[in-house]
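Teaching assistant here, posting this on the class forum so everyone can see the example we discussed in section. The complex has two components, and the goal was to see what a joint structure prediction looks like when all of them are supplied at once.
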Amino acid sequence: MAQKPSIPKGTRDFSPIEMARRNYIFDTIRGVFQNYGYQPIETPAMENLSTLMGKSGEEGDRLLFKILNSGDFLGGVRQEDIDEKNLSKITTTISEKGLRYDLTVPFARYVVQHRNEITFPFKRYQMQPVWRADRPQKGRYREFFQCDVDVIGSGSLLNEVELIRVIDAIFKKLGVNVQIRLSNRKILSGIAGLIKAPEKLTDITTAIDKLDKIGLDKVVDELLQRGLSKEQIDQVLPIIELTGNNIQKLDSLEKLIGNTNDGSAGIAEMKTVLAYFDKLNIESALEFDPSLARGLNYYTGTIVEVLAKDVKIGSVCGGGRYDNLTGVFGLPDVSGVGVSFGADRIYDVMNELSLFPDEVLHSSEIMLVNFGEKEAAYSLKVVEDLQEAGIRAELYPDAVKMKKQMSYADKKSVKFVLLIGEQEMETGKYTLKNMQTGDQITASLPELIENINA
RNA sequence: GUGGAUGUAGCUCAGCUGGUUAGAGCACUAGAUUGUGGUUCUAGGGGUCGUGGGUUCAAGUCCCAUCUUCCACCCCA
């Protein structure tokens, strides 16, 4: 046997049944997006590296797939850079394009580039694959789909509220129990301000983000390691140990960091957002959690992360407000907020919990058995009539043994099989077999159609 | 990117301290059933043991390298 073919690490093929289920997820998400007034756009798989680099931190740059230049890509490389193994310099010379890492950065680029055609606030959605040169794990792929919704050009907190409602609506429709964790980047800045160490903001956030995972003691260790003093840590700890409901937590927090500019602004925003939900129907658990950090360094306001309650997997959705992402492309003072749904993780969760409805597999509703040349010619006309009546119908292409044809219908979960042999051709009444019950009836075409649609 | 595990038929796995033609269940193909699938019975096909080296009289079994998948870190959808 020849060497088996394979696909690159962290990528997957999708079978018809998997596609049916994936499309069910995409259709559900798209339906909600449209229902809330968002419009689709698409952007290319590859972007210029100058667009992608430096937007999601060093870690993000490391995870970028870079595309080798065409032609004599070595032409511009200097010998001294090779000798000194100056990788970053060589990279920028031999590669000027990369695969997109997420959809938010290309969207920001799109907004800046098309600013004169866009009516703001601009509500768009985008469902496309992204690529990351990460090491694969469960729920972590090198090629995966993100479904992003963003509204850009409006600073109103109503947008945050709407996006949380979008999240709730989608997971409700899919039947996935989720917890929605909320916080605000300004609260974290307030904490950093409180201990007079604004430059430690990232260190503090990445450390306390792990609270759920590694526990309080280890978080303290990590904070020490990251250069915070004991006194500073003592100031930080009460903040991440808040108890009570969302409002109580915010009230206690206000006493601690309410005197910092960022802190009080963040708390006020959080309170405003939560207050809207007093009068709204929302099913998912909404939890204010000041230990929520989210790494992407372009977030400036509200941050949100959605976890599946019943499956241990990374977040299935996440996002937040970014006040100046378009600034790096030359369009300052445009605030946006958006969230991204991880379709592949949602698939994994639903698969593990067997949440897919049976009817997502759209195979034919009826298959006509092929008895031979004459019968097939006759059946073809019946297939046409059925299809015109809006029924998914097919004729088995070969006049092979009936057992084989029936078994084909069974495996494809075709609901009905229609038998048109010599007798049926003479009488004009066909034999219809229901594959689920095994019942058979003899009926004319209009009666059949009625029966199938019942 | 760091550390650790894994890899035997299409799938899930068995194969003791290296020893003749590598096994099971499911799936597949054919027949029982010449106009009837999903159940049952019978028979059959299919593996250079991830790949490449090495040790040995002898390697699925030991050693090295490499790739895949998985787990933790990192990061995140």
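For the discussion questions: Chain A has a mean pLDDT of 90. The longest strand of chain A covers residues 122-131. Think about how each of these relates to the inputs above.
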